[in-house]
Specification:
The complex is a heterodimer of chains A (454) and B (317). With 454 residues, chain A is an alpha/beta fold. Chain A has 19 helices and 18 strands. In chain A, strand 4 and strand 5 form a beta hairpin. In chain A, helix 2 packs antiparallel against helix 16. In chain B, helix 5 crosses helix 10 and helix 14 runs antiparallel to helix 15. Chain B starts with a helix and ends with a helix.
Amino acid sequence: MYRRWMAVALALVLTLAMAGSVFAQSVTIIARAVEGGVNSHIVTWIHESVFPAFQEKMRQQGREVELRFIQFGGSDEALKQQYALDLSVGAGADIMAFDGFWVPEFVEAGYLKPLDEVAGPGVWNWEGWAHIPEGLRGLLGFDGKVFGLGLGTDVRKLYYRADLFEQAGIPVPWEPKSWEDVLETARILKQRFPGSTPLQINAGTSMGEATTMQGYFMVLLGTGIHMYDFEQGKWIVEHPGILDALNLYKRIYVDEGLGDRRMQLLAQGREQSFAAFRDGRIMILAEGDWFWRSVVAPGSEWEPAGGRNAVVRWAPFPAKEPGAGYGGTDFVSISGGTGYVLNPFSKNPDLAWELLSFMFSTEMMLKLQELQPGIRIRDDVPVITDPVMSAMAEKLLPVSTVRPQLPAYPRISVEAQLMTERVITGEMTPEEAMKAYAEAVVELVGEENVIRVK
Amino acid sequence: MAGVQLLWRWEGFAVRRDQVALLSGRMGLTFLSPALLFIILFLLFPFVWVVVISFTDRTLLGASAVSPEFVGLRNYLQLFNPERWMRRGEFGYSLYLTLIFVAGSVAGQMGLGIILSLLFYRREGVLKEVMYTLVTLAWILPEAAMAFTWSAFFDRDAGTLNAILGWFGLGPYDWLLDYPLLSIIIFNIWRGTAFSMLLMTAALGSIRPSYIETAMVAGASPWQRFRDIMFPLVRPQFLTGLVLITLWTFNVFSPFLLTQGGPAFQTEIVAIHTYRVAFRFYEFGRGSAIAVVVMVINLILASVYLLSQRRQGVRAR
């Protein structure tokens, strides 16, 4: 009896599997997005706009397609790990959500191929190219080749709690002109709200790239230098600017206790920092615009009581002194970009490209804007619905810079995170930490590719 | 009496050995070959492969994923670079943490195991059933779920442990930040005590009650009974447990689920360190070099185990 049931079940499973593969071509998308969780709007966008509309379009052409979206719930680092392992054995989803700065490493390992190699030169016939500025095509590019389409870019700044500022008698809008202004405000807040750790600038390896982008880079750029000298093509491993940056960390976390070291060191620290901002224990937080769009967005888990639009404000992240920023600016920002790439091992590369380019059509991009307005790559898709986002983009994009799009960057970025961690734990002095950083970078790229400035 | 028993067991083995000899060598090999094949395929071959990779700069990402180069002993020299191998996050530091972790876990698991088995020695009842069930549950429940529970247990603000300590006016302590290594040792003791408890219970159960009764008649105190009668009789099992737990604990990875090796690498025991280098930094070459060193250490531990087993065999004869 048991055996017969097994046979029936097996036959059923096989039939279903066959039916799926015989009648329809299939395409799979993966992204770090979970319904009701992180980047929930992407799930909504794909399931409610992209898939039905694409199915309809295919049906009109008399084609039957099977579309699947894989919701990845882990961290960005874990997703990258998944991709590396998948692609190294020629597996993985057909369309993958990708962070631009991962691209070079994957290309050099042979895990990614240019769009026109994966889906044929026909990709250049797409109408969208006319609306994507030349400079932004390389968002998911390397060595002059394009591997995917970027959703858009972002900027970084300080967010603050206007309600608590007012309670502490600090005038709003707040416009800090220097690091000292930021520290001074934090001191006032700490005094006014005992037990709080008002200021947070990310540090440590646990937060991963969030430390480099929202933390170390913002501070370092404020001293007038970058991690990488683009003219000479070398990494700056010793410089008074690096020491200034590390000393700022030391003051915030070690000397004055203006920030909470704990969140920088423990797993899930970034989520804890969001919760602390919501609860008013952190009142000044350096973050990207994802924080505004998603983390504290109305209805989200981390939206402060009183509502985002009423109590959360932003201010440009000031340089150490006015005019001391990278390129002589008064305040600084750094931009990244995420998007989607085509898997070169895809079984249906043409269909995958059709879907990818459909996702980036004006119509679909506008749908995405409705769900969550952002700075989009297409010039025919404005940030219409959110004046705050527009203001941030307008003010900060002109001063914003980017990471070096190089295969060595991700690993060096980890060393920079480690350098900040060593300072905030008190394991090393800024001088020792910089020396250890220099050693590690030299080991990674060689003495001939670094610069030391005394 | 014990000697007779073992002698009989030894004779049983001798008889069996004669029977084995009935098979021809070729037949024997035929029977062995499936197992050998698997061992070669899944153990010996990967082992050799890892040794080979450890002499290259192979990575999972970047240019050296496609064309790895032979780098000689570089990976090994970097592991043991005296200037910085004891720095947090480096190999030496991780070995040092592992040493403390293993020592603490083994002492805790064996100690607790013996105490529990002695407490319930020759006792039956609900209490024993409940206790043994709970301890065994800790051993067999799925790792991921347990790690999640334990992070709730250790939490600074809403954790169970701090709540309990609070009743006695202690704390709150920030366990995972200030005492991370201690925390994962406690976690691991809790997790693994079942094995030593069951082992020691079985071992104590094999002692003839008459020995203990005789000692009691002679007026031996509980401590004397333990020291002079029980412990010497269960020493072989005790040693086996000690070596086995050492070996397992050395390779344990589950604290990763609790702390991910942090904060600031203070719980990065050697298994987690290897994982980070090989699968977070994708440096297969260096990761393999670590794996080779770890394998050598494991081989030494295993030899200690095998030698102690052989000694026991000799003594029994």
